[in-house]
Structure formats: C-alpha cells, structure tokens
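Support reply, case 0932

Customer input (verbatim):
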Amino acid sequence: MTVLVETVGLTKVYKTEGGSRASEVKAVDGVDLSVSAGQALGLVGESGCGKTTLGRMLVKLVEPTAGRISVDGIDVAGTSGEALRQLRRTIQMIFQDPFSSLNPRLTVEQIVAEPLVVQKIGTRDERSRRVGELLELVGLSADHRGRLPADLSGGQRQRVGIARALALNPRILVLDEPVSALDVSIQAQILNVLKELQQRLDLTYILISHDLGVVRHVCDTVAVMYLGRIVEMGSRDEIFGAPGHPYTQALLSAIPRLRADPARPQIELAGDVVDSGVPPSGCVFRTRCWMARDICTTEVPALTVRAGMTHARACHFAPASSSEARGQ
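Our regenerated output:
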C-alpha cells in the first residue's frame, strides 16, 4: 500500500525560561511513524504524552526541532509558498473544540468556503455550490448557511468543522480529540459521520484521542504513546486483544469493557507520574513498571517485533501475550 505519512526521528523540544538543558521538555522524542493510504491510525496515551504535538507537526502548525516529516511526498519541514498550499490541499486537521476553532463572526457558509477563497479555487457561485455539497455531506441543511457558530449546537459546529476540513478534497485528516468536547449523546453521531466519510471519500485518518473506546470504534491500527515516544503499535485487534507493553495493559485494565478479559483486576501502577522535563534514563516507563529490571535503567528499548510476538513493543521484557504479563 502507498505510504502517505512518514516520520523519521521526529522530535519536538520546548524550552522554558532560562534556556538551560534542565528546562527542556521533549514533547515528542524520536518518533518513527508510517501511515498508509486508507488507514485509520489511532494515537492514544495520557494527557501530555505528545500526541497532539505530533499531530500539529504533521500539518505544519508546530515546527519540529529535529527529524523528518513526509506527507504524500511533500517534505513538510521545508514547505512554503506553493508547496505549503499544496500541503494544505493534502492534509487537514479537525480540532477538539468546535466552538473555539470556528470564527464567531463568520457565517457557516463563509467558514466552509474560506479554504476555497484562500486557495483561490472557483468562482463565487462555484464556491457556493461546493459549500452546499459539503454541508449535505456532513448532515447539515441549506438552512444552516447563514447561521453563526453561536446559533449551532456542539454537534452541528463540529460538522461545520468537518465540512471545512473537506473543502479542499484532502487525502488525509488529522482528528484531534474530535468528540471529547461533545455531549455523550452526540459523540456516536459524529463518529459515525467520520467512519462513513472515510469509506465514502477513501480518506486516511490519524485520530488523536485519550478515549480508547473512540479509537476502537474508528481505527484499524493503534499507536500507544508515553512521554513523547511510541511504546506499542499494532492492529486494533492486537492492541485490544493482546496488549504486550505494560503501559498498554495498564491503560486497558482501567476500562473493563475494552479488556480481552473483563474479569481481570485493574493494574495499579507504582510510583508517581513522571515529570516530562526530567524523564527517566533508559526506558521512560520503568519507574512505574512492575517488570522493570537493571537493563531498563540504562538501555532504551527499541520499538520492534520480537520473537514470539505479533506486533511492535518498546519493552525489554514484553511477554508474548497479555496473560503472561502478570504471571498467569
């Protein structure tokens, strides 16, 4: 399959006042990622793990400190001018808060047409027809054209955000917590819209979420992040059915309905949440891990598929199945 998104050694370092090494925070730390056409990849992990920063670097809203990003053959880091305009036509982002991401002074028609205006695509009449097509595509009617964001419900605002993201016919959408700001009763509707659009338009998704249920519903591949690094990656069935990395096991154990064996007890992690500004040496998860050994303090485990395993885990001692992890 054609690889549309690829990152190599992608790193983002934020510096606090003072500029010393001790005040540097690696939000994303050497991430290698490959996303094929038509794939729906879920990026999951705790708040602060770097998943949103990673997503924003893919669409050039955040500049990387090091590493390389390729989107459909475009070198993202080096884009400007016409190349940047082409990037915007290839990859778009749907944001978490559908209210703050929409200009409150513009009507729905103006918001959805804005990418076409910026890219100088079509006449006014052609843009108006395109807006109508997009609104219908996301389940809104022509009656919504003249409304302001404040006149819409949360679900309607997110549909407008989706329509705007689709205006340029992108091949890739980065979805940053697309339903977390919505009422639970509306979340399923928006997720179903996103699934239908992916199939209908042959889209590639990179879904950022802390909600494992959302990821399981939408994605076919899952990457688990911890302190800026991907610690496990595999198919949806592999991750949810046989998680190998201790951190993934702990995440899933907190949600019985998503566990392979709901009768198993929740895993209680030892230690405190790590300060991302001062990460542990070796394996970043070792201070909270029940399987940690001496090697974990000195050697960073590579994200590889080891003998007897079915998908990639960054762990020196990851078991071949989740049941082995707890000695059962």
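We compared this against your earlier run and they match. Two observations from our side: The mean pLDDT is 89. The chain has ten helices and eleven strands. Please reopen the case if you see a mismatch on your end.
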